[in-house]
Amino acid sequence: MTFQRDIKNHWNVQYKQNGYPHVQQGFILPPDRKEEFDPFIIMAEDWFKRGTFSDHPHRGFQTVTYVIDGRLEHIDNAGGHSILDAGDVQYMNAGSGARHAEEAVDDDLIHTLQLWLNLPKSLKNTKTSYQNVYADDAPRVTFDGGEVKVYSGNVEGVKGPLESLVPFTLSEIKLQEGATYTYRIPENQNAFLYVLAGELEFGESKTRLKKTGVATLTFNEGGTGDSELVIYANQRSKVLIYSGVPIREEYVAYGPFVMNTMDEIQQAYRDFHAGKFGPPAIK
What family is this (predicted)? Predict the structure, then answer.
């Protein structure tokens, strides 16, 4: 029988007002509960003006940035430059050492979600890379009362264009009021969801979540089949669902680095200050 997913834990994002230029921030996946989210580490929701995330380093993990509103300018020290709009996604493999900037364009107030996706020890020294997935390039599958947009992974027989070193699935699901949809992903993937708009009921428990609601889902880590999550929309709604197979390695997340030991974190700081991450990320 197909494994039936349900809500495991759920909560609402709590926000703090930071002032200018980092106007507001909340953690969708808070850092003090990272053991629950493997292979994911944290996910932050940010509203910010230009100057908040200028040139900075990373090592040992991947980021997945979803733009909710505004224009996001990406600059990296390998000559990369791009502008992302609402609904666009950028993937970065920091690997052995990235140095980049993520800026609001002109006087925009940018609103983003950034997920940190871990790398196993065997991939932490891989080459830095970036990939943009523009909203129009992500395939859509329509169903009665809505559509699912696939950025990464395989859903509804289509494959998302995002190619990550650690495979994961990211879908954006829109439903009209009264619509029901059954979302299918492998049962061994740890998954969480974030409600961007409306009000939805999930699983056999019919757990009701509104905008800013977050939930982790039940899963069967040793399973080899598919799973189903039944979703019902009480209102016109939009939800993001992320999932991936746990890595199950001890790691340390400290500042802008994610490594397997504190010694490796300290080495990352020494390498950055010694100039081994390359020149600043500026245009």
Answer: Belongs to the pirin family.
